[in-house]
């Protein structure tokens, strides 16, 4: 009840949670207590967690930050939720606010209103997992789930002084996680430390026959290497991440972190990701294309919102979608439908897919001379509420350092690396495929 009480007191101001159900939470807590008493507890049994409202949880309202799902109660558990509740005995505190359908970098596109950054309530927490980040930063929850399609775990973690991990694509099941851009979406943990993230990932990860892109791999203990010394570690510094585009104060904090890594025995080597300047344009073709297709299921027929007054079926579709989706979602659907349409497909969508391949190849080449790649997570610290919401391109540029990782399917982490102007700065670590344990080790030794 410690966290539930804090949520009751502080959430009206922070707006990190959209749904809290005290009764359900207390019931789960009682079940966890029974499990502990019976001696069958796991390492996370009874640990409270906040769930991003993109994960379906049976009997819980699951909104994805949208009016179109504002009254949708999920009939089943996402695999991630099932693993946490049933296998691990974790206790969900509620569902956290997010950008509508995870589209955004500031949590301002949510139907349920913006989330405030606990470090400065006039500023954004980042997005789209902004509610999860703010919940942890305001100590309304010790840990949370997030999803990362183009930085949505790492950027809010950076802006709220947290540690967050986006796993290799395919490591965490997407079953029951409402789809935004299916080839990029990946769920992952957010917490106060790399150690917390490792324990959470142990619970979240694993092959799932219900997700066709889930990867069948032997189970791993992601915490196994946490304490390994860093002597001999080769850190790659992409020259494209250290040029212009990043705030000087953010860069200074990143440089301090690099110096600390050298003290810890790591060496640094310059690497190059020559196509990284193309990642934002390629992403903002591919992600909307997939979104326009995924979001066609919200038609007012099977579930969710339906416009109250309409003529024929077409009119019902149009009114439902016009009223149910917010501006940013509509913008993405229009971009997506356009780049996929006959006559434009080759020029935009296929071209973006080619760039995606080049970006992935850049990483493969870079990892020939280093073990992890390091850089900033976000080019700025938390910006003011409203500062970028009128200018989509400015908003999209918040993602310059995070998006390439999703296009390549690689694992990436954000972790705190000091402050600039009183606001948290997040370091980013990028690993080779399936190198989560190493990333967590590199983060943990620094922490
Ligand atoms: N800002 C990006 C977007 O709006 C990232 C979103 C995400 O990772 N879910 O698409």
Automatic annotation (TrEMBL):
SUPFAM superfamilies: Amidase signature (AS) enzymes. Keywords: ATP-binding, Ligase, Nucleotide-binding, Protein biosynthesis, Transferase. Its EC number is 6.3.5.7. PROSITE patterns: AMIDASES. GO terms for biological process: translation. The active site is at residues 52, 128, 152. Residues 1-440 form the Amidase domain. It catalyses: L-glutamyl-tRNA(Gln) + L-glutamine + ATP + H2O = L-glutaminyl-tRNA(Gln) + L-glutamate + ADP + phosphate + H(+). Gene3D superfamilies: Amidase signature (AS) domain (3.90.1300.10). Allows the formation of correctly charged Gln-tRNA(Gln) through the transamidation of misacylated Glu-tRNA(Gln) in organisms which lack glutaminyl-tRNA synthetase. The reaction takes place in the presence of glutamine and ATP through an activated gamma-phospho-Glu-tRNA(Gln). NCBIfam families: gatA. Heterotrimer of A, B and C subunits. This is Glutamyl-tRNA(Gln) amidotransferase subunit A. It comes from Azonexus hydrophilus. The gene is gatA.
């Amino acid at each position: 009840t410690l966290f539930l009480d804090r949520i009751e007191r502080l959430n009206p101001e922070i707006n990190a949670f959209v749904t809290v159900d005290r009764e359900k939470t207390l019931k789960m807590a009682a079940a966890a207590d029974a499990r502990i008493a019976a001696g069958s507890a796991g390492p996370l049994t009874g640990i409270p967690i906040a769930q991003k409202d993109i994960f379906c949880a049976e009997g819980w309202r699951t909104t994805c930050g949208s009016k179109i799902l504002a009254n949708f109660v999920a009939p089943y558990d996402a695999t991630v939720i099932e693993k946490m509740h049933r296998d691990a005995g974790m206790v969900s505190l509620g569902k956290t606010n997010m950008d509508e359908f995870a589209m955004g970098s500031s949590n301002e596109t949510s139907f349920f209103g913006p989330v405030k950054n606990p470090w400065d309530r006039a500023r954004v927490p980042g997005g789209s997992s902004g509610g999860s980040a703010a919940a942890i930063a305001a100590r309304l929850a010790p840990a949370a789930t997030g999803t990362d399609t183009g930085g949505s775990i790492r950027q809010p973690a950076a802006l709220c002084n947290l540690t967050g991990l986006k796993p290799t694509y395919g490591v965490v099941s997407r079953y029951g996680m409402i789809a935004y851009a299916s080839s990029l979406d990946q769920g992952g943990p957010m917490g106060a430390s790399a150690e917390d993230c490792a324990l959470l990932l142990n619970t979240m990860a694993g092959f799932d026959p219900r997700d066709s892109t889930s990867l069948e791999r032997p189970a791993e203990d992601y915490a196994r290497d946490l304490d390994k010394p860093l002597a001999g570690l080769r850190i790659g510094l992409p020259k494209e991440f250290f040029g212009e585009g990043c705030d000087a104060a953010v860069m200074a904090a990143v440089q301090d972190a690099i110096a600390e890594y050298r003290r810890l025995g790591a060496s640094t080597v310059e690497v190059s990701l020559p196509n990284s300047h193309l990642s934002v344009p390629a992403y903002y073709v591919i992600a909307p294309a997939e979104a326009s297709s995924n979001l066609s299921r919200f038609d007012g027929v099977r579930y969710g919102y339906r416009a109250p007054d309409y003529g024929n079926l077409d009119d019902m579709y149009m009114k439902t979608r016009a009223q149910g989706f917010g501006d940013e979602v509509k913008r993405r659907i229009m971009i997506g439908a356009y780049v996929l349409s006959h006559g434009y497909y080759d020029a935009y969508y296929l071209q973006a897919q080619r760039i995606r391949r080049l970006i992935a190849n850049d990483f493969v080449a870079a990892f020939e001379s280093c073990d992890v790649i390091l850089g900033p997570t976000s080019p700025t610290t938390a910006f003011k509420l409203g500062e970028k919401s009128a200018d989509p391109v400015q908003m999209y540029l918040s993602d310059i350092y995070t998006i390439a990782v999703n296009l390549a399917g690689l694992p990436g982490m954000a972790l705190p690396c000091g402050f600039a102007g009183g606001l948290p700065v997040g370091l980013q670590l990028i690993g080779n495929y399936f190198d989560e344990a190493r990333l967590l080790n590199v983060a943990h030794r620094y922490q």
